[in-house]
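Appendix B. Raw example, untouched.
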Amino acid sequence: MLSNIFLTTPKNKPAVNQDSLNNMKKRAVITGMGVISPVGNNLNDFWTALKEGQSGVGEVTKFDVSDFTTKIAAEVKDFDGTDYIGKKEIRRMDLSSIYAVSTSLQAVEDSGLDLEKLNLDRCGVVIGSGIGGINTFEKQHTILKEFGPNKISPFFIPMMIIDMCAGLVSMKFGFRGPNYGTVSACASSSHAITDALRIIQRGEADVMICGGAEATISPMALAGFCQARALSTRNDDPQKASRPFDINRDGFVMGEGSGILIMESYEHAKERGAKIYGEMLGSGMTADAYHMTAPHPEGIGAKKAMAMALKDANLKPEDIDYINTHGTSTGLGDVAETKAIKDVIGEHAYKIPINSTKSMTGHLLGAAGSIELIACMLSLRDGIIHPTINLDEPDPECDLDYVPNKARESKINTALSNSFGFGGHNVSLLVGKLNGAG
């Protein structure tokens, strides 16, 4: 049968050796980063705020929240997209895409890439978003209801769709390599980073712009999360609302913004004399296959993702120096992640610093993984672990060292970053200082 042609292995062909395949992988490094966040709209301001334990949470200012059970969020502040994008162009973009393009411009500048010297066919973009253009959708739906279909913007569809973040970034720089968006709720940007890593490792591109963007602080999104009873209702004390691993946590806080990284093959970065923040060592991706919104109570998917990342990086649990958790400030999530960490890392879990960036930034949903990986890269660079703020009374089931309320100096060679999303999506990313590169 014809199908046997594809199923039969030649008798004399040697078996594939996984170690040999791993040795053939190209190394991937991070050479540039950009951030727009509730605690800072550039890399330096973002990192300074995190080290100082500043909260970006406050009362929602974008629309009237009088009738909402949750009236707080972590909004981006003092941001003007026209600092990066022309006024005519910006009118045809959703806020999520504006964030993505703006942070990509920051990251490319930070990387020192010379666009005129790049082979643009070997430069790509993968950017994730959990929800994408929901602000555009809501505005255009209101126009439809009030004025009819003939008043809908001809740019409605391209403004709304999630992949346009990546599409517009590729157009901005002329990158003609792999280009698409990833969608996996709160794991979206970590999946994007993983895909960029694999593309570099396979030798399909020299440079990848990757990360995530999210702009979901809108009436529909806030109402939806309120009805799901997922959000904190600590409206009278917003800056204390996001409190991962604390016994008095009562839900997460919505955030917005973007985190973008420039990833290059080590050879490409070395040849051009690039500044290198660190190396992408590995990734693990799994599914809980358990519940639409709740994590598996034993953190089964999270455990497997972390174990896979360690195996991918050829590291042992005791090689991990620091973990940036998903740490959302939800009752189920914080406990499940703590259990998963202890199961995978063992006794070493009690000896390493662990934190939650979301205690300050709120939850950037599809962009959370990317800004948290950026925090990891900055920790590698500076030897500083930012605090988990508002951790005043730890949950007895969350008994690890979460670096409560004050930053700490720590020697870090490797860092693990976790991202988990509605639908049971799990991603663990491993990064480290550049060692043994020659």
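End of appendix B.
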